[in-house]
């Protein structure tokens, strides 16, 4: 998979692993995505849709020239959440 979707995919994995479907009910993350998607938290459902959009945009010829904006937006958000290292004096 392209590196533009890695940030969204990583966030989806983390969300699934922290969901009640995996933690309390003991299902595999793949089972939660396929069979119990309606039980997932809203954040996981939105990340699932974003992952789909990112993968779809990789195949869309119109976005190949412009770049995959779905994946780039996720990467920008990840960079904003990560605090910058303190500057050495």
Automatic annotation (TrEMBL):
Gene Ontology cellular-component terms for this entry are: mitochondrion
Q: Could you tell me which Pfam families the record lists for this protein?
A: Pet191_N
Entry keyword annotation includes Disulfide bond: yes
Listed A to Z, the keywords are: Disulfide bond
InterPro entries linked: Cyt_c_oxidase_assmbl_Pet191 (IPR018793)
Q: Which GO terms describe its biological process?
A: mitochondrial respiratory chain complex IV assembly
> Would you identify the family this protein belongs to, as annotated?
Belongs to the PET191 family.
Name used for this protein in its record: Cytochrome c oxidase assembly protein PET191-domain-containing protein
- What organism is the protein native to? Suillus plorans
């Amino acid at each position: 998979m392209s590196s533009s979707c890695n940030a969204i995919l990583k966030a989806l994995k983390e969300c699934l692993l922290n969901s009640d479907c995996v933690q309390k009910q003991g299902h595999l993350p793949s089972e939660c995505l396929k069979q119990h998607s309606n039980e997932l938290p809203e954040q996981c459902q939105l990340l699932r849709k974003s992952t789909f959009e990112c993968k779809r945009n990789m195949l869309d010829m119109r976005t190949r020239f412009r770049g995959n904006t779905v994946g780039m937006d996720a990467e920008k958000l990840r960079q904003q959440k990560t605090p910058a290292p303190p500057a050495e004096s």
